């Protein structure tokens, strides 16, 4: 089955699934999982399917087309109130360097213990938790992709990784410390090691005002080593448009023994208005020259037109998606609707390294006809100056998404 057949088929499936999703939201057909003695098994399915096109590119535009951005299948099992495990595979694309549709890889295989409140311990293969935007589920983010600086600063948050992570979660805070190795399913060098840390919470929580502050740090103390090369890193990311794998922002390979990144995060919610942003600096410990440092930030705003605005979730230390009653036009219920805007800046120019500088302006319109379904339309204007491949282009992308867990 080609992607060009899959995408229209998914659109029809979303329309078909909407009544079932609505019923689940109303409690009429809630799925509680399958009981196996004292354990409960819950299926997991998650898909994001994009169609997009870039235009007015100079010197040219990235290719447009259709992509299965994420397509994950698996399950989670609760052995008790304290123990759970998950096994999830990914059959979709992972941006610029991941496998495409039809190439299966392990995304998550981990166990979690939460019997010592407020602590939670997880171990195995899973995606590390780092930065505010990455702590949000990809099903809830305001835009299709993270801001470029978040991807660069959270260099290890790029798929399931072997590791262990300790979390402490309260009503108004989340804190974590993790130790991670290589990615699973990519054939990465197994020598890589990194420490992660995050502390975030609500410093203000009133009836119509919530203020979030946080800080993040990543320390890669053993860098990957490809065959025939010395250990090092390459900082590179696509321009927040991953229909095709072009990346114009890149440092190239930097011979290095380590890399450190850290920064601040903030968010404010008041009524239908939501504001958030993050700033990060990246330092590379080179072995063959002057140590460079890179940086960037983003700022974004959203307004909920229909439904209940985003609410802060202590489990993630971030805001979830808008919610609304089930889609029922006869009763004037049209689901949740949100508009958003973002400016993103990333600078990979330092010392004699010229990886380019990227600015992206974006606007989005997101619609949730049910909690488990979303359609997201995004426009962006991207500009990369300097580096080996300066570019400028505009793009429009539509994502259809479903989630069952």
TrEMBL record:
Extent of the signal sequence: 1-23
UniProt xrefs under Pfam families: Porin_O_P
Record key words, sorted: Signal
Keyword Protein biosynthesis on entry: no
InterPro entries from the UniProt entry: Porin_dom_sf, Porin_O/P
Family annotation (SUPFAM superfamilies): Porins
Gene3D superfamilies in the record: Porin
Top-level taxon of origin: Bacteria
Record's protein name: Porin
Organism from which the protein derives: Roseomonas haemaphysalidis
Biological classification of the source: Bacteria, Pseudomonadati, Pseudomonadota, Alphaproteobacteria, Acetobacterales
């Amino acid at each position: 089955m080609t992607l060009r057949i899959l995408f229209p088929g998914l659109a029809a499936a979303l329309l078909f699934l909407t009544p079932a999703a609505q019923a689940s939201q109303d409690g009429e057909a809630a799925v509680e999982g399958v009981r196996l003695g004292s354990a409960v098994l819950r299926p997991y399915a998650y898909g994001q399917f994009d169609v997009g096109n870039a235009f007015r590119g100079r010197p040219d535009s990235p290719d447009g087309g259709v992509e299965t951005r994420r397509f994950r299948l698996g399950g989670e099992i609760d052995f008790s109130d304290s123990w759970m495990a998950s096994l999830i595979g990914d059959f979709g694309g992972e941006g610029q360097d991941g496998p495409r549709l039809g190439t299966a890889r392990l995304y998550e295989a981990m166990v979690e213990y939460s019997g010592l409140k407020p602590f939670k311990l997880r171990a195995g293969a899973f995606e590390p938790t780092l930065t505010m935007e990455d702590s949000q589920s990809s099903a809830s983010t305001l835009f299709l992709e993270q801001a470029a600086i978040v991807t660069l600063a959270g260099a290890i948050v790029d798929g399931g990784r072997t590791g262990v992570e300790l979390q402490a979660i309260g009503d108004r805070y989340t804190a974590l410390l993790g130790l991670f190795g290589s990615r699973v399913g990519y054939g990465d060098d197994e020598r890589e090691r990194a420490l992660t840390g995050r502390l975030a919470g609500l410093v203000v929580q009133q009836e119509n005002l919530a203020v979030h502050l946080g800080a993040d740090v990543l320390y890669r103390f053993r860098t990957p080593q490809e065959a025939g090369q010395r250990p090092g890193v390459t900082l590179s990311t696509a321009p927040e448009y991953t229909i095709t794998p072009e990346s114009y922002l890149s440092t190239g390979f930097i011979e290095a023994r380590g890399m450190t990144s850290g920064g601040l995060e903030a968010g404010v919610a008041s009524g239908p208005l939501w504001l958030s942003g993050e700033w990060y600096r990246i330092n590379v410990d080179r072995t063959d020259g002057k140590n460079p440092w890179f940086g960037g930030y983003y700022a974004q705003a959203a307004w909920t037109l229909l439904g209940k605005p985003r609410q802060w979730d202590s489990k993630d230390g971030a805001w979830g998606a808008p919610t609304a009653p089930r889609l029922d036009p006869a009763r004037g219920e049209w689901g949740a609707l949100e508009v958003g805007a973002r400016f993103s800046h990333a600078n990979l120019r330092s010392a004699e390294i010229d990886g380019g500088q990227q600015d992206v302006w974006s606007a989005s319109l997101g619609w949730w006809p049910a909690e488990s379904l979303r359609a997201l339309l995004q426009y962006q204007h991207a500009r990369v100056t300097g580096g080996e491949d300066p570019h400028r282009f505009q793009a429009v992308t539509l994502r259809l998404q479903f989630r069952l867990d």
